Amino acid sequence: MPTDQFHEWFAERARAGVLEVRRVPFAELDGWDFDPDTGNLRHVSGRFFTVEGLEVQTDYGPVPRWTQPIINQPEIGILGILVKQIDGVLHCLMQAKMEPGNLPLLQLSPTVQATHSNYTRVHRGGSVPYLEHFVGDRRGRVLVDVLQSEQGAWFHHKRNRNIVVETTQDVPLHPDFCWLTLGQLQELLQLDNVVNMDARTVLSCIPFGTPGGAGTDSGFRSALVRSLARDEGTLHSMGEILSWVTETKTRYRLAVRRIPLNDVTGWRRGDDTIAHTEGKHFETIAVSVEGNTREVANWTQPLFAPRDQGVIAFLTKRIEGVLHVLVHARIEPGYLDMVELAPTVQCTPSNYEGLPAGSRPAFLDEVLTAPPERVRYDAVQSEEGGRFYRARNRYMVVEVDGDFPLAASEDHRWLTVSQLTDLLQHSRYLNVQARTLTACLHGLW
């Protein structure tokens, strides 16, 4: 499918699909209720997920203690992309999928994007297409199979199975699915809100081969191509990086405890929202959904709705002709292992209003004031639309000049893109925001 034909097909799928999403009071949730003892917002089946409370105490960051709502979804979902050689070129089977929290509603998702509750049909709805390629006696060769985390500020220990399976079989094509090359997907990643978060995280885990033909260009693209090669110079060895991550876990204190939602302080529960008293961070809302594109025709559910758009960015620098990205060893209360590597900047700037001087995130000003000629990537991307309502972040890649210091801070290190790719073959090293930017970096050369 040529790319211009894809856009026509995608627009046609948007016209054919119907998904009406309305915000409703909590009292109109069907199958959900607040536990009378704890106040936790739960599903009557005991499945899907629960909105409960979290208490955090730490010496990391500007706030030493807080409580907050958190999504507890202990089951592991599947994010799977089926791939196939077509005329000698690897293609990915992608789905045009509507989610209630997406803006716009229709975005490009993996072949299979389903929680355990969904694909075991707790909702008593239809089956998940192509699921047989990813569970049980699979019908293909596994290229990627790794557990990866999701947002550590909103999920408690949430993980999904990121899996890529190659098939040689004839695959019947459902109307909402299409075959696209990796090059086409990387091109689509340059656009706002087309490729969804779940597709981006799986794409980031694919161990791309080293591109050929860096040529004589000494600019950004040539430095990026060298950054993708395993035999090019790195500022830190992989052993040094792993030791640094371990040291970060021992340098800070983090105590996290699940608590009843009733015990969360600084948040106010109303008829249709659970919101922060200062109007920051996010709120918990309820929505009613009706449509013709999902396994069930109508349902209600809670969603987390951020109050503002965030900024997520990698600073990059050419070091001896090899592009390096500045990663941040970041602590978030929902991580299973305390620390994951994040982008240089990952924040919602408005959340820092009113905090003490010096609380502003490091390097945020370098990102926001970067001259246009140093901005290598700049797009707004949506976060997971099945749990978050219109959550979007501005993702950026900014190249700094040669005078920018190599010793940034004890919580930051310069890594090549190849090192990021190697770490992505293992669980719990790169967070979901860093995985998005890694996927986007592959499209820049």
UniProtKB/TrEMBL annotation:
It comes from the Bacteria. One of its GO terms (molecular function) is lyase activity. Residues 4-206, 239-441 form the dTDP-4-dehydro-6-deoxy-alpha-D-glucopyranose 2,3-dehydratase domain. Pfam families: Hexose_dehydrat (PF03559). This is NDP-hexose 2,3-dehydratase. It comes from Microbispora catharanthi. The lineage of its organism: Bacteria, Bacillati, Actinomycetota, Actinomycetes, Streptosporangiales.
